[in-house]
Specification:
It is a single chain. By secondary structure, the chain is mainly α. It has one domain. About 70% of the residues lie in helices and about 0% in strands. The chain contains 7 helices and no strands. Helix 1 packs across helix 7. The radius of gyration is 17 Å and the shape is globular.
């Protein structure tokens, strides 16, 4: 029996969508496939490659610092998505669940999560710079803008916070 939207938390559904996006599309196997089989000069190739942005890996050839920073970025995208879904008031102010404000709140949460995750992890790189932080945050925001609509769709129809 399907549980339906009555039991779906918008925060939980959006966080789960973010986790799945990061786990599946951030994996080395998907990234290798995307870079070997897509053309970066097409819209589809651009998007399929962009999905790989919060890559995570356990490659023993990389330095420990690079592995931790890359994995931290992927973890922060998921954690910050949950935080921003909780903090964004758009769907709290909506009169009914499943409204467009709930969609945009989920999408915005993923945009902010991508930008801040990239910004925070830049601090852990060797010789971090303000320009590097801005460029990294820009790539995170770009990822959130083009992929975050999936999180926005996942949050539609869910209730906010705790049920009474």
């Amino acid at each position: 029996m399907a549980l339906g939207n009555r039991f779906k938390s918008a925060i939980g559904a959006g966080t789960l969508a973010a986790l799945i996006l990061v786990l599946v599309f951030g994996s080395k196997w998907y990234a290798d496939w995307a870079f070997d089989n897509t053309n970066p000069n097409t819209a589809g190739g651009f998007w399929l490659r962009l999905l790989t942005w919060p890559r995570w890996s356990f490659n023993s050839n990389d330095s420990l610092r690079e592995v931790i920073v890359a994995d931290l970025r992927a973890i922060l995208v998921v954690v910050l998505t949950a935080l921003f879904l909780y903090l964004l008031p758009g769907s709290q102010l909506a009169r009914a669940r499943g409204t467009i404000s709930q969609f945009f709140a989920g999408w915005a949460a993923y945009i902010f999560a991508g930008g801040f995750a990239a910004l925070f992890t830049t601090l852990f790189f060797k010789n971090p710079s303000l320009l590097g932080a801005f460029q990294s945050a820009g790539s995170g925001v770009t990822y959130g803008l083009f992929v975050g609509w999936i999180v926005g769709l996942a949050t539609l129809g869910g209730y906010r916070g705790t049920r009474s």
